[in-house]
Sequence to fold (356 residues):
Amino acid sequence: MTTNGGFQPVFCTIVPPHVLDKLAQHGDSALADPARRTLERDAYERTHRRLTTVLGAPAVAPPADAAADQPHRTIYDAGHQEELPGEKVREEGSEPGQDATVNRAYAGLGATFELYLEAYGRNSIDGEGLPLDATVHFGEGYDNAFWNGERMVFGDGDNEIFLDFTIPVDVIGHELTHGVTQYTANLTYFGQPGALNESLSDVFGSLIKQYSLGQSAAEADWLIGAGLLAPRVTGTALRSMKAPGTAYDDDVLGKDPQPATMDGFVKTGRDNGGVHINSGIPNHAFYLAATTLGGNAWERAGQIWYDVLTSGELPSQASFSDFAKLTVAAAKTRFQEGEELQAVLKAWEQVGVQTA
Fold:
């Protein structure tokens, strides 16, 4: 169930369409062809997502003997084909095999489950023990990873621009958090609510990485997708929460277009109204609040953001200002008039989002 009335037909990928569009226009077919195939497949999956929303996706319940404090993971191998789910290759409790991609996907699902359970008391992404399924080795040189409303799917990348999409655990956490949003605030995937949808996935994706590594806010790199870019790319990651707009500046990919404040807000009809671009603004607000407070970012700043996401008060069409006001209210409710409230107020002020 969602808080805001029925599921939105959201198909969420980690690599933004504007990045793949640029690659698809490149003169080198080794770069352009995988990007074109990825865009074509993404368009198919986006349509399929709409249809399953209209027709109804099959309900998946946890096994009768599943423990409430344990994940239920199943990994499938697509064998470089595009049929889902693929062949089952690892299930909950089985030992690691020889395929590092399978093992990383299994571990990443576990890290996501662990953060939500141990930090916030949430049993899987739906709060009711939803089994976590993932398919690896999807397609031939597929340059993306996505959540389709039912499962995680990972491409191996083209090895020219992108490497294996299971490498960054925050990519796994990011995509699964789209599932958490689907089951809670159900934010519309367009404009500011869509950018909030993307930002929440970046926030909790980063927190999942920090939690799994035992990193404080000061120790974290605040990068989304570090380790995903191939050596030829001039860049460190897909996005930077610490310094939006600086993740890459490459002769093929171009320059990271994310703004850090409302002064740089991008008005565009592409990418569902710039959901992967303008998410830099709320991303940066969270970074500012978390680093101001220090310590473990999931404990105070993360708790406030989680409280808002799951409160039932966040409208599906929420603007940045709507979300910001709710974080102020959540900080007061949980922490009263302490430093948490001041950190949240100052963070939104610094990125130019109104909380009054």
